[in-house]
């Protein structure tokens, strides 16, 4: 499990990537919470590459769980780009690529999850530092989700704070019955360059729908 940095100019090594100071995530946390972040987490969320360049993390999926309703909901979500995991395989690679989007000032995220059989699942989304919470994630067909960030214990936590549909300049809130419920993503530093990424979807009526966990490790520089 390693991380690497790829340049939009097809530079052969990470030495060609210029890292910039990134205050976008810093502005979404209180001074107290930002100061409590583990050093490695602080560094990951403070670095920014130039527009069009990417940071790539490679890890392995170690936990996956679906309720029956959750699995069917994930399949149905393919109609808007497949933003939720759909496979049950563990021990398979996961690749996350974060690319700076100069047009919006946000980031384009691509998540590739391998399967033991068949083609890998690819999830595309775009993060924009806008909206009522300061952070929105767009997953396809104008569907977006506002996110709130907190630091709890030793975990950086992203929680859904409402879903909506973008139609031109108009943003329409989606009713609860059209949404999966509460989505939570966590980033937990494990020390020595390793960290854990988790995704959980919990519906207020049907309970836990989806859980996925993956382990990543930074390359030693």
From TrEMBL:
The upper taxonomy is:
Bacteria, Pseudomonadati, Pseudomonadota, Alphaproteobacteria, Hyphomicrobiales
Stretches assigned to the DUF4166 domain: 37-216
Q: Which domain of life is it from?
A: Bacteria
Q: What is this protein called?
A: DUF4166 domain-containing protein
The source organism is Bradyrhizobium guangzhouense
């Amino acid at each position: 499990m390693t991380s690497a940095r790829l340049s939009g100019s097809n530079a052969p090594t990470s030495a060609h990537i210029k890292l910039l100071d990134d205050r976008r995530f810093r502005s979404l946390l209180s001074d107290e919470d930002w100061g409590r972040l583990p050093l490695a987490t602080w560094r990951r969320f403070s670095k920014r590459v130039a527009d069009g360049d990417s940071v790539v993390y490679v890890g392995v999926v170690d936990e996956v769980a679906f309720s029956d309703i959750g699995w069917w909901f994930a399949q149905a979500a393919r109609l808007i780009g497949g933003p939720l995991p759909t496979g049950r395989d563990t021990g398979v690679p996961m690749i996350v690529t974060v690319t700076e989007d100069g047009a919006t000032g946000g980031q384009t995220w691509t998540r590739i999850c391998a399967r033991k059989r068949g083609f890998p699942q690819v999830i595309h989304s775009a993060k924009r530092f806008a909206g009522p919470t300061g952070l929105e994630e767009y997953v396809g067909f104008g569907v977006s989700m506002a996110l709130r960030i907190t630091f709890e214990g030793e975990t950086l936590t992203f929680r859904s704070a409402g879903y909506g549909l973008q139609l031109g300049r108009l943003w329409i809130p989606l009713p609860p019955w059209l949404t999966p419920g509460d989505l939570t993503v966590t980033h937990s530093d494990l020390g020595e360059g390793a960290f854990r990424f988790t995704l959980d979807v919990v519906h207020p009526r049907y309970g836990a729908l989806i859980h996925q966990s993956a382990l990543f490790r930074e390359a030693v520089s």
